[in-house]
Write a structure and sequence with these properties.
It comes from Streptomyces cyaneochromogenes. By secondary structure, the protein is mainly alpha-helical. Among the domains are: about 1-150, no CATH class; about 165-250, no CATH class. It contains twelve helices and four strands, in the order ββαααβαααβαααααα. Helix 1 runs antiparallel to helix 2 and helix 8 crosses helix 9.
Length: about 350
């Protein structure tokens, strides 16, 4: 793997082509050029049979230069570094900064290639490629180019388990700009292999990574959240931001639902289907704090006290904002009989 730095200070990781693949591409190009040269020579000789020997020799030299030297230069210029042999082998010629080559690059490579490939049967090119750290021959060195592999095999990456649903969108306010790429890579590698580690070792590694991540974000890890779940949720938040930045406000770009706790909040209560889903998660269920299980005094409001079994002012509004598993079930008040109702002097219209 070679790291190229562009003019915009962007590091590009490219795979320089190996000597066997480059040699195979050169052989394919030479075979095509020789076949074309022989076919054109036969046609020209048949058409110029009446010319003298000197004229035929001059035409042969011109066709040699045109097909075996000018042909590869023209093909690499028009295809931006992809000749027939390189296209068949999945290779491409690029500049040192990773950009496409131009005519001057192809011209220098072609002219020097005549000396180090055709005149020396490729011996000089092989020696120069073996000596160079990136496998460049003399034509690449003088032209400022590099032959890279375009067909890079996909690396088999491990599966990262999704974070628990009760952490969805909880870290949407974190500042992730100061987190280095090395830490993201370490977090991803840990999440893909955490089920293969010893539980104690995995827990200590998760705590260390969570501490490093919290130090770079400037926000402490929330209490009551397992460190592995915290890492997975923050990693998912980073991936969601990258997707929104790349594709705009597409499906799922709206982020998490509103009303989820802040990053530094306390543990949350998970009940019903959410608890079953959290129990099946590889990160484990949420740690419920004792204070969160029982609502504090005054959670139903501080209006007029209940009279006759009916809630006071503001009771119904506060009751709707409390989860159903916390609201105490009170029997419905029975209506008073007409004899017990006080007279108000109000008569309904006929």
């Amino acid at each position: 793997m070679s790291e190229l730095v562009t003019g915009e200070a962007v590091a590009l990781e490219l795979r320089p082509a190996k000597l066997p693949s480059r040699a195979l591409a050169v052989l394919v190009d030479l075979a095509v050029a020789v076949i074309a040269y022989i076919a054109v020579t036969i046609g020209v000789v048949a058409a110029t049979a009446s010319l003298d020997e000197a004229a035929q020799t001059a035409l042969s030299i011109a066709m040699f230069v045109l097909l075996l030297v000018g042909g590869p230069i023209a093909v690499e210029t028009l295809s931006h570094g992809r000749s027939l042999g390189k296209l068949a082998c999945g290779l491409r010629v690029v500049r040192d900064d990773g950009g496409p080559i131009r005519f001057r690059h192809a011209l220098v490579r072609g002219l020097i290639g005549v000396i180090e490939i055709l005149m020396t049967l490729g011996v000089v090119a092989v020696i120069a490629s073996l000596v160079s750290a990136r496998g460049r021959r003399l034509g690449d060195v003088f032209a400022g180019t590099l032959v890279v592999r375009e067909r890079v095999p996909l690396a088999r990456t491990g599966f990262v388990p999704p974070p628990p649903p009760w952490l969805a969108g909880r870290f949407s306010g974190l500042d992730l700009s100061a987190v280095p790429d090395g830490l993201w890579l370490a977090i991803r590698q840990y999440l893909t292999r955490m089920q293969q580690l010893d539980p104690q070792v995995g827990w200590s590694m998760a705590e260390q990574l969570a501490a490093d991540l919290a130090a770079h974000t400037g926000t402490p890890a929330p209490q009551g959240v397992p460190p592995a779940a915290y890492l997975a949720a923050v990693l998912q938040e980073r991936q969601a931001r990258e997707a929104r930045r790349a594709f705009g406000n597409g499906p799922g770009a709206g982020g998490a639902a509103a009303g989820v706790g802040a990053p530094g909040g306390a543990g949350v209560v998970v009940s019903g289907a959410g608890a079953a889903a959290a129990a099946q998660s590889p990160y484990g269920p949420a740690v419920v704090s004792p204070a969160a299980a029982v609502p504090p005094p005054g959670v139903y409001g501080s209006g007029v006290a209940a009279v006759g079994g009916q809630p006071g002012v503001g009771g119904e509004a506060d009751r709707s904002s409390v989860p159903q598993d916390v609201v105490p079930q009170t029997p419905a008040p029975q209506e008073a009989s007409s004899a017990e109702r006080p007279a108000t002097g109000f008569a309904p219209p006929a």
